[in-house]
Specification:
The complex is a heterodimer of chains A (about 260) and B (about 280).
Chain A lengths: L2 E14 L2 E14 L3 E5 L6 H9 L6 E6 L2 E2 L7 E4 L11 H11 L4 H14 L15 H14 L4 E5 L7 H18 L2 E6 L2 H7 L2 E6 L4 E7 L8 H4 L2 H28 L1
Parallel strand pairs in A: 3-8, 3-9, 6-7, 7-8
Antiparallel strand pairs in A: 1-2, 1-4, 4-5, 9-10
Chain B lengths: L1 H8 L4 H4 L9 H24 L11 H14 L1 H33 L1 H14 L8 H8 L3 H25 L3 H9 L4 H38 L5 H10 L3 H29 L4 H4 L1
Helix pairs in contact in B: 4-12, 5-6, 5-8, 5-10, 5-11, 7-8, 8-10, 9-10, 10-11, 10-12, 11-12
Classes of the chains: A alpha/beta (about 260), B mainly alpha (about 280).
The complex binds adenosine-5'-triphosphate and magnesium ion.
The site of adenosine-5'-triphosphate (ATP) has 13 residues of chain A, from strand 1, strand 2 and helix 1.
């Protein structure tokens, strides 16, 4: 089967004041249609950079990024981004933010409203439709961002730590909702997280990345069957998978800390 | 908690508010102090002039000023002056805004436009509006058009500079987000750039509105038959100091009212800023 999203030998170098940072080097990755993929890795290993490339926000310095075989050369609405920093429109109410995608697609007003109501309810924000983002907590804003992306109905959801600001209970509810949506709609999801449990719970495959330079160190098929609920988390298979991923990540964390200490 | 809020509210008299919630810090007490201060000043003024400490040639008494005010108000001259000046401000300011806001947005978005207009902005900005009086009089005479032109010349550059800056500062992440959600160029403009730049543009308009008043008054002082500036200048020629003071107070009040109205409009246009006021 053809990959819906692909990175072919992608290198991205940022230059700021003549200082070059290799955000990712020679990353190749195929993402299959309908798949739930997690990108896992320490801070600065290029996870957001990969999503920005997939969304068409930046172009690779070397290599190619493809959507259904076509190079992504401009901002791509088919790859909807859930931003790490929310990026809500401050001058729009919760409802207007969520309606934005449907509105841009030229859907009738009644349909826009219907979609907005549905996704606002899904992220448990009914009753806050007429609030402005500044009047919401961080976790609530994060959920509005999620609802806004879902309402725009992209083929691929690119999610940059979308649950980072949520408390543990809300996070679990949102994870379940997201899985339900993904299973029902067959959407492809690329999901960034720092959290190994979250990666195992959600994903079909886990892409482990390391920093300096950002690169893919392992791609792990998730052998656990859904639903991977609390019962599943108590099984030896779960523990084995978790410690395997931990071993892959921990070297990079230690290395990063040592590197920082060495430089200091 | 209450004390902290009270303190921040009464910055004018923090000493009295310290650690005394509900003391000299409630709304009512502040108003009382405001009134007492003004009344005390008026009393001092009255005593100084009526008691002969100050010659009426230097400063008329509050009673004389009030007397003068009721007289010019009764003849309708005062209202006519206020209306004439306000009308000139309105047209000059509106023209400047209609010209400078779209140009500023264009310059904010498109560097070549910035490069072309930039030198003119740099050269025109330091020129006080009164320096335009000779040229505008030559071109337009001393009628309404000339007053409006002075207001226009005195304000458009400020409106432009504010608009360019606030357009450039619109968060690029929000523009990316809008495009990612399928927005066209036109939609990005209407849904993101304009509302994003609006607070800065409105701030610039408010500053320029205040400036436009000083423009119109100086133009009226030099050459005009009507308006608050002319009222003051003519009163000086007739040595009617009371009328000069009446004119000055009227200018203060009119500009204050205009500023209040601008503030109300600003809030209405930006409901999303309401959490800052509540
Ligand atoms: N716009 C940019 N300009 C310059 N350097 C950048 C830019 N974006 C990212 N980088 C650099 O690229 C590297 C990877 O950044 P990236 O944001 O992709 O990391 P990340 O894995 O998402 O980290 P985190 O988990 O902290 O969000 C970092 O060293 C960062 O400094
Ligand atoms: Mg990131």
């Amino acid at each position: 089967m053809q990959a819906i999203l692909a990175a072919e030998h992608v290198t991205k170098i940022y230059a700021v004041h003549a200082k070059e940072t290799t955000a990712v080097r020679d990353v190749s990755l195929d993402i299959r249609e309908g798949e739930f993929v997690c990108l896992l890795g320490t801070s600065g290993c290029g996870k957001s950079t990969m999503l920005n490339l997939f969304a068409g926000f930046t172009q690779p310095t070397n290599g190619r990024v493809l959507l259904r075989g076509q190079p992504i050369t401009k901002i791509e609405p088919r790859c909807g981004m859930v931003f790490q920093s929310y990026a809500l429109f401050p001058w729009k109410t919760v409802r207007q933010n969520v309606e934005f995608g449907p509105k841009m697609q030229g859907l009738p007003a009644a349909r826009q409203r219907e979609l907005a109501d549905r996704y606002i309810a899904m992220v448990k924000l009914s009753g806050f439709e007429n609030h402005y983002p500044a009047e919401l907590s961080g976790g609530m804003q994060q959920r509005v961002t999620l609802a806004r992306s879902l309402a725009a109905d992209p083929e691929v959801l690119l999610m940059d730590e979308p649950f980072a600001a949520l408390d543990a209970m809300t996070r679990q509810v949102m994870q379940e909702e997201l899985l339900a949506i993904q299973e029902a709609s067959g959407k492809t999801v690329v999901f960034i997280t720092h959290n190994i449990d979250e990666a195992i719970l959600l994903s079909d495959r886990i892409v482990v990345m390391a920093a300096n330079p950002g690169r893919v160190t392992a791609v792990i098929e998730n052998p656990l069957n859904r639903p991977r609920d609390l019962v599943a988390q108590a099984t030896p298979a779960y523990a084995a998978l978790k410690s395997r991923i931990w071993d892959l990540v921990v070297g990079d964390v230690r290395g990063a800390l040592a590197g920082r200490a060495g430089r200091a | 908690m209450n004390a902290v809020r009270a303190m921040t509210r009464s910055v004018a008299i923090p000493l009295f508010a310290l650690g005394r919630p509900g003391g000299w810090s409630t709304r009512g007490s502040i108003l009382l102090l405001n009134v007492l201060g003004v009344a005390g000043f008026l009393l001092l003024w009255q005593v100084a002039t009526a008691g002969g400490f100050l010659s009426p040639l230097f400063l008329p008494s509050p009673g004389q000023v009030l007397n003068e005010a009721t007289q010019v108000a009764a003849t309708g001259e005062l209202w006519r002056s206020i209306v004439d000046s306000s009308r000139r401000v309105f047209f000059g300011f509106a023209l400047a805004a209609l010209f400078a806001v779209p140009l500023g947005v264009l310059m904010g978005l498109w560097a070549p436009a910035r490069a072309i207009v930039g030198p003119f902005v740099s050269l025109l900005r330091p020129l006080p509006s009164i320096t335009w009086i000779p040229l505008t009089m030559l071109w337009l005479g001393i009628g309404e058009a000339q007053k409006i032109a002075i207001v226009f010349m005195g304000t458009w550059v400020y409106i432009l500079v504010y608009t360019v800056e606030s357009t450039k500062r619109v968060d690029p992440l929000l523009i990316k987000a809008a495009r990612n959600l399928g927005a066209s160029d036109l939609s990005v403009m209407r849904e993101v750039i304009l509302p994003g730049a609006l607070p800065g543009i409105l701030a610039g308009l408010k500053v320029s509105l205040a400036i436009s008043w000083s423009c119109v008054l100086s133009a009226e002082m030099v050459a005009a038959q009507s308006g608050l500036g002319a009222l003051i200048w003519n009163a000086k020629d007739w040595s009617n100091l009371a009328l000069v003071l009446v004119g000055m107070v009227c200018i203060s009040l009119t500009v204050l009212v205009a500023d209040l109205a601008a503030g109300v409009i600003e809030r209405l246009l930006q409901p999303w800023e309401r959490h800052r006021h509540g």
